[in-house]
Each structure stands twice: as C-alpha cells, then as structure tokens.
Amino acid sequence: MINMKEQLQARLQNEFNYLHTHPEISWQEVNTTKYIAELLRNEGLKPIEFSNMTGLYVDIGQGEPKVGFRTDMDALWQEIDGQFQANHSCGHDGHMTMAIGVVLLLKEMKLPGAVRIIFQPAEEKASGAKAMLEQGVIDPLIYLFGSHVRPLVELADGHHAPALYHGAAKLITGTITGIEAHGARPEQGINAIEVAAALVDAIKRIWISPTESASIKMTQIQGGGTSTNIIPGTATFSIDARAQTNETMKKLTTGFNNAVDAVSLLYGATIKTTVSAYIVAAQVDKDAHEIMRQAIINTVGATNCAPAIVTPGGEDFHFYTFTRPKLKTTMLGLGCAVSPGLHHPQMTFNHEQLPVGAQIITKAIQLAYQQIEGSEQA
C-alpha cells in the first residue's frame, strides 16, 4: 500500500517529469491520452477513451460513480528562447500528476462506491468541459472536485484554499461596415474607424455598480488600406469583457449590445458581432466547499487552510455546474509557490505539494461519500 509520503513523492515526480517534457496543446493531447491510459491499465484499471476526441476517464471501485475528480491536460503555445512551442506553464502537468496520485491512493482503499477520475482536454480553449458534458461523463455524479496550482503572490506555499471563485470572460469579435469615400469628400462616406472610436467611447459608458467587479475594453482594431486619402468603409475589432459573476456578465453583455445598437444607429453603419469564446464564472456549492475545507484541515491542519480565493482569471471547469446546476462542485487552490506566475513561459512551482494535493482530494472524496451516505439514510 502506498502510505509513505516519500514513496508517493518519488512516483509522482517521475510522472510529472514525463508529462512536463511531453506537452501537447488543446485537442492535440494524443500522446498524453495514450500515456495515461497505459498507466491506468498497468494499475489494473479500465480507462475509457473516446473515438472522436482526446481525453479519457476511469472509474475506481464498484457500482455507479457518485463522486469525481477532474484534471485538465493541455499545454499552451508559447515563445520560449525565440521559438514557439507547446509549454506547460499553467500547471496542467501538475494537475494530471495529482490525479495520478489520487488514483494510486484510491485503488488501495475500500471505497463505499465508485469514483470517476476525469482527464479533460482543451481547458485553454474553453471547450473541453463542454465536450465531456456532451459525452455524458458527468451524468451520474453528485460531487465533482477540481484543483489548480496558485501563484505565490496569491497563496503561500503549503497553504491551500477550499474554493476558487474564477470570474466570467467573454471574447467578442466584430465587423463594421460603413461606406468608403475619397478623403476630400467625407460627407459621401461612413468612416468605419470613426464608428469604432465611437464604440470605444460607448462601452466605457456602460454602467455597472461599483460593488460588482467588471471590465470591458476594445483590444484590437483594424481598418483602412495602404492609401491614406481614402475614408475606410470597413473595420474589424475585438472586445474583452470580464465579470466576477455570471449575473454581472449578463448586465455587461446587455450594455454592450445597447452600445452597438446606439452607435450603429447614430452613424448609419452596420455592426455585426460574434462571441468567439465564453467562460462562465464559478458557482461553488456550499457542501462541496465545506468538504474541501475539512479535507484540507484533516490533511495539513487548520493553520494551513486558507480562505476561498477570488480571482479574475477564467476556468472552464465551471461549465460543469453551469450546465448541471445540481452538481456539487468546488476547486482546491493548491499553494505551491507558483512563480513568476501562471502562463509565464518560465513558470515553476514546488513539486513537493503535488502528493499533498492528491491526499487532500482523496480525503475530500471520502468525505463526500460520507455526506452522500448520511443524506441517503436521513
């Protein structure tokens, strides 16, 4: 039985080394999927893969699973030393390593029911969770836990948080169609760049209560050709919208749509927009939060249990609860001295916290089953 921290640490460090040095970007995690599937089979388990996508899951124990743990798998595409390449700078290699640790711990235990461990692709594209939902992977679950390594500036090394309140993010692209004209005859045209400038001003006038965290800004604009004496008739733009809650994002979206309509009417231009990416905000379940808090305390003590973390970053894990509102979820914030920061090409963290994270998640799974059994007996 794996019951010594040193033994688990050594095994997980080996697994991390492989995963870290074999990164694959979103929807291309082919070899990562094969590696994990083979590892699970070598542990006597029966992983389930998909014919039309990367990723996999495995059930440990008997019966239908009611509790699960999800890890992401994909790397980022980044420039490192002058060359673009896949790079694990968001900690997904560490998350997979933790999931392997959870598997190793659970398979040595007598469980009251089955546990589903989910290896999800394409978190960085905000499409992996949706794909897993479409595959029905979450359907039998009552509880689902996740985890994410945290920056040192946010959470001290060895301190862990029972919930991560990620914000919502919406990326919008748009096309402005005006009328091209000679620079000497502006009255004959509709200047698409001026329309875009008016939209920049309009979105800054969207009113959101100061008690609600939100921002919206134009991050790209392209218009006009190589000639400087032609009034441009077309332009394209990109918008980045952020909100701490899904309710605030709805208000921000309504305000943006109103701004588009007003500017379009004022200038007589056509503005068409498309949502290119959307990540929902966290909806943390109070029971799952309390279970994770107790799991942290039981594993590392109350002094190392930090409060829940509110972060403006996004995470597609929260699509699970957004789509299945009755699903009880929370994410463990693993304090492991991430530095300089997430998505930095030279990101590093304290690998010694990975087996600790695996132990916390394993304890949370046990406590979740105790909660389920208590509810069924009540």
- For this structure, the CATH topology of the largest domain is Aminopeptidase
Separation of termini?
Answer: 34 Å
Mean residue pLDDT? 97
Q: Biggest sheet, strands in spatial order?
A: 1-2-6-3-7-17-8
Give the full name of the CATH homologous superfamily of the largest domain.
Zn peptidases
Annotation field: number of helices: 9
Main sheet specs: 7 strands, mixed
Key attributes of the depicted protein:
378 residues; alpha/beta; Alpha-Beta Plaits; seven-stranded mixed β-sheet; 35% helix
Q: Helices, strands, pairings?
A:
Blueprint: H1 5-21, H2 30-42, E1 48-49, E2 56-60, E3 67-72, E4 76-80, E5 83-87, H3 92-106, E6 115-120, H4 128-134, E7 143-151, E8 160-161, E9 164-166, E10 168-177, E11 181-182, H5 192-203, E12 214-223, E13 230-231, E14 234-243, H6 246-267, E15 270-279, H7 286-300, E16 309-311, H8 319-323, E17 328-338, H9 353-377
Parallel strand pairs: 3-6, 3-7, 7-17, 9-16
Antiparallel strand pairs: 1-2, 2-6, 4-5, 8-17, 10-14, 10-15, 11-13, 12-14
What does this structure look like?
The chain contains nine helices and 17 strands. It has two domains: 5-167 and 282-377, Aminopeptidase; 168-279, Alpha-Beta Plaits (2-Layer Sandwich), CATH 3.30.70.360. Helix 3 crosses helix 9, helix 5 (192-203) runs antiparallel to helix 6 (246-267) and helix 7 (286-300) packs across helix 9 (353-377). It is α/β, with parallel strands linked by helices. The radius of gyration is 24 Å and the shape is elongated. A seven-stranded mixed β-sheet has the order 1-2-6-3-7-17-8, with helices on both faces.
